[in-house]
Each structure stands twice: as structure tokens, then as C-alpha cells.
Amino acid sequence: MSARADRPTPGWLAAIPAAWLAVFFLVPFAIMLGVSFAHRVPGGFYEPGFELDSYARFLSPFFGRILLTSVALSAGAAAICVALAFPFTVILARMGGRAQTLVLVALLAVLSLSEVIIGFSLSTLLSKTAGVGNFFAWLGLIEESRAYTPSLFALMTGLCYLALPYAVLVLYPPVSRLDPELGEAARIMGATPLRAFWTVTVPMLRAPLFGAAILVFVFTLGVYLLPQVLGQPAHWTLSVHITDQAIFQSNLPFAAAMAVLLLLVSLAMVGITLLLGRAR
Amino acid sequence: MMKRRAFLAGTGAAALGTLAAPSVLRAQSGPLKVGTYGGYFEESFRTHVYPDFTEATGIEVESIPEPTGEAWLVQLQQAARAGQAPADVSMMAQVARIRGERAGLWAEIDRGAMPNVDNLPEHFVYAYDDGRFYGTGAVSWFITLVTNTEVYPQAPESWTAFWDPANENSLGLLALASNSFLLEITATVHFGGKEILETEEGLLQVMEKLAEVKPNVRLWYRDEGQFQQALETGEIPMGQYYHDVTGLAAADGKPVRSTFPKEGAVLDSGCWVVSRASQAIEASQVFIDYMAQPEVQAKLSRFVGTAPTVPRAMTDLTDEEFAAVSSDIAPIIPEYDLYIDRADWVNQKWSEIVTG
């Protein structure tokens, strides 16, 4: 296609995504960072300035607990998603071509559902009046229908439903490229299928597994609607509180400070995970 | 997703930044520009109110849809600094009105030229601390005690139902102090009035009392749709909600009812104010005065579903029409100042004690 085979793509092409990133990520982030140091005017908005009040307000047991809740929820979702997605993907990779395509299309279809639809569907499915409780009662498993939402279980189900396709999509390419002869070799040398899976397959896929976990973790950390719909106030994440401050309290400096801190914490978590992934 | 969140917060700030450049730069002659909340309100006013106003006064109206929340206040403020008024008259939420008052954003208007303002009760007449009159109540609506009629065949009579152990895990309440007005309700019901809200100790006492409802609360909602559906199905059979919307749902055949508790329902409202940059003060006065007429308020009740800002006796609303939008029981008026002067403190304690 190109007349000059040594340079198939022009170098300046990289400038487009770089400029995109600068305009739509770095600039807003810089504004957010600036606002987080601004002076909150009680009964008004904010004035430009440089003060640490918003950060100081965050340093309390109350917000510490909220941050911990957010991180724990996302970490839990990441662990569950990877634990479910990995065996699922291994089985998927062994299916026939047509079956694989069908499953992947179904998974991609899930991605088209918004957080709102997932949240409201689950809250109906887990409700007392129209939910699975009626089915369990009909089966005689429980005496009368009950609600399973709002609860940690409902919230976790929502988070995993939202994020599982991403975990599968991250794992699918490396798993499908995995050479089946390696597992067979282990089996010939006397390993049980389970042992071959744990000692050969899993270590070879450590990087994609950590990758999938990080993706789910970061993805679910930004979720702010599901905790409101499916969770109790104890499960309201930092993202929910950021929304409250920005939209309902007009306290943009505090909202920005919380967003900056959440970003730092998630970067730190990603860093730690990457280090762990490399160490062994 | 980190990007998405950073982007969200970032664009919020950026939006405030770009508002600094007033987008409306045009000559101040021509029709009177009246701003109302975009959507249902703007449409209703454009259809049912402005044509009659023009016919009665000869003043043409240009309808301006406003964003809800406080974005409009920021826009008016920035534009006024540049000597511009994106709207002459604006409908404002109470908290935004007070913020504008503190910033001196509202133009003084001549009460002497507005005889109908005398129809309004004192809490719908607004003036600066030095007595300069600047605005009136525009529309009002009630937040009442709502129930699912299938789960509660008997209508509850009092807000105390929220504290009744029999209603465990069955309430839907608004999630924020500043939109639920549950502090005012608790103070009225359990502490004999809102005076206790004047001090921080009193506020804490009220919050502790309100925290007792926690075992009964199934949902703290921010989005109306979230609760309305659950109320209609009986999933969350009791709570606080808007009287007008509940009435519409009941008229649709949904098993819901709205009750004015004997202690009073919460009366929230919007108001009319004029930007100090407006060149059409006189026409604005005519408009605000026109809106304070009992006939116009009755029309709003019939066509827009809002409660009249004038006493009922002045209007020709039938019992049925009046009951659809209001009640004779004295209302609980929100302590808006609380959500301005002590906003951060109240919000923090609310998160820790009430919803936390």
C-alpha cells in the first residue's frame, strides 16, 4: 500500500491519539486538580486559590471507611470476575468455532446494556413482589417471598454482571492462543488434569489474569449508580459521595479532591498489583 | 474508567469555566425573557400562561428553558458581571434564590407597582436584609407521606409512621438533607417545631432522632423514578414523595395514595426573581404581579399541577381541584438557610448519623 515499505505508517499519526489524550484527559484532569485546591465559599461556589482544606476534610475516619469500602468492593468484584471468567474462557477456547462466536456475541451484547438497565433489572429480579423470591416460595424453599436487594449480594452481582464480559475479553486471546501440547506434555509426564492446569496453564497466563483483575477493579471503582440502586448506604462508594458533593452540594473543590485521591489510590493499587504479578 | 470519572469531574469544572463567556449577547429591547426549568415546566408555561399574559398586557414573552440545579444561577451571575441578562425574569429554587440574594444578583423591584403581591403570604415575599423587595414565590409543590394502598388499606395519619417498628424495611426516603427536608419534619413531629434546628446541638439531637428510622428504611433515593416504581408495585410500600406526581399515578389507576399528615406536608417552592442586569424591570414587574393573581394561580393548579401560592379562599378552585394540589393543613416550610449557611456541616453529619 505504502510507497515506502520501511515506513508503513507515518510517524505523525501517533500525534492524533496523543493530542486526543491531552485535550480530553490531561486538560480536564489539570482543571480538576486546580479546582481541588480552590477555596470553597460557603453559601456560594468556589474561588480560585490554593488551600488544602478539601483534602484535610477527607482525612477522617468517615471518609477513610468509605474509601476502604470502595476499594474492597472493587477488589472483591475483580477477584470474583477473574475466578469466574478464567475457567469460563478456558472452556470457551475448547469449543467449536461456531459455538465460540455465538458465546462471544452474547457477551458483547451484554456490554451494550447500561449500568442503569442492569441496576434496575437486578433490583426487580431480586425484589419481593416480582423477583426470584416468589419462585423460591413456590418451590417451597422459603415460606414467603422476600427481597434480596438492597444488599451486598445484590450489589456484588450487579458489579460482576457489568464487568465479567471485560474479564473474558481480556483473557480470551491469550487463552485461545495457548498451546494445548503444553498441557498434554504435563499429562504425559503424569500430572493430573487439575495439577497440569495449576502448574502449567495458570503460571503461563499470570500476566493476562492480573490484567483482567486490574481492568475489573478500575472499571468497577467508577461505578456510582449500582451502589445507590442495589446497595445499602453502607455500600455507597466514594464515587457516590463525589456525585453528591458535585451535583447536590455544589462543593466542587471537595468533589475534585476526592476524585484526585481516588485516582491516586487506584493508581497505587494497580502499581502494587503489577509488582506482585512480576515478582514471582 | 479512571478517565471517565476524571473526565466527569473535569468537565464539570470546565463547564463552569466556559460559562464565564456569556453566550447571549443581544440587544435588550424586544420581548420579555422569562426563564423556567426546561422540560415540563417550560412547556406548560409556554402553552398555558404566556399567551394569556401577552393578551392581557400586550407584553410579548420569549420563553427561556433553564437548566435545573444551580447552573442557571452561575450563568446569570457571570452574565450580569458582563452587563447581560440571559433572562429578565427567572424561576429559581429557594436555595439558589438565597445564594443570589447574598451575591446581590437580584434587581430591586417596586412593590408599590405590584398590587397583587399583597395576595401572597409572607413566606412568598422576598426582600434583602435592608428591606429592598426583589422577588415572590412562583409555584409550590408538596412532599407528602405516600403509601401503597394494597399494602396499607388504611391511610397513615402522621409522619410518626416512619418511626413505627411495624414498618420495618418498608420506607423509601430522599437521600439528602437538602432535598428530603426530613430534619424539618423530625423537628416538627418530635420537637414541637423547627426552633431546635437553630443550633448545632439541636440539629444533632434531631439527626439522632431521625436515625431511629434507619431500620425501617429500605431505600434512600436520589432519583424519583427509583422510588415511584417500587411504591407502585408495593415493593417499598411507604415513604415521602411528591403529592402531584403521586396523584397523577393514582389517577392512572396505580395503587398509591398521597396523604397530608396531620403535622403538615413539606411545602417546597420556586420563585420569581429579576436579574440586576435586566433592562426590562418594568415589564418584569408586570409579569410577576400578573402571576400573583388568584386566577392565574388557579390556572397553574389546573394545568401545571402546582399548589397555589395565594390562599385558597382567593381562588375559585373546587374542593377536588384543590385537594389534587394542596391541603388546608399548615405546611412545614423548609429551613433553606440551613442548606446554605451550614451546608457542609449538615451534609457531613447527615452522612455520618442519618444515612451512614
UniProtKB/TrEMBL annotation, chain A:
Residues 67-273 form the ABC transmembrane type-1 domain. GO terms for biological process: transmembrane transport. Keywords: Cell membrane, Membrane, Transmembrane, Transmembrane helix, Transport. GO terms for cellular component: plasma membrane. It holds the Pfam family BPD_transp_1. It is found in: Cell membrane. PROSITE patterns: ABC_TM1. It is a multi-pass membrane protein. It comes from the Bacteria. This is ABC transporter permease.
TrEMBL record, chain B:
Residues 1-20 form the signal peptide. InterPro entries: SBP, TAT_signal. The keyword Oxidoreductase does not apply. It holds the Pfam family SBP_bac_8. It comes from the Bacteria. The keyword Cytoplasm does not apply. SUPFAM superfamilies: Periplasmic binding protein-like II. Keywords: Signal. PANTHER family: ABC TRANSPORTER SUBSTRATE-BINDING PROTEIN, SPERMIDINE/PUTRESCINE-BINDING PERIPLASMIC PROTEIN. This is ABC transporter substrate-binding protein.
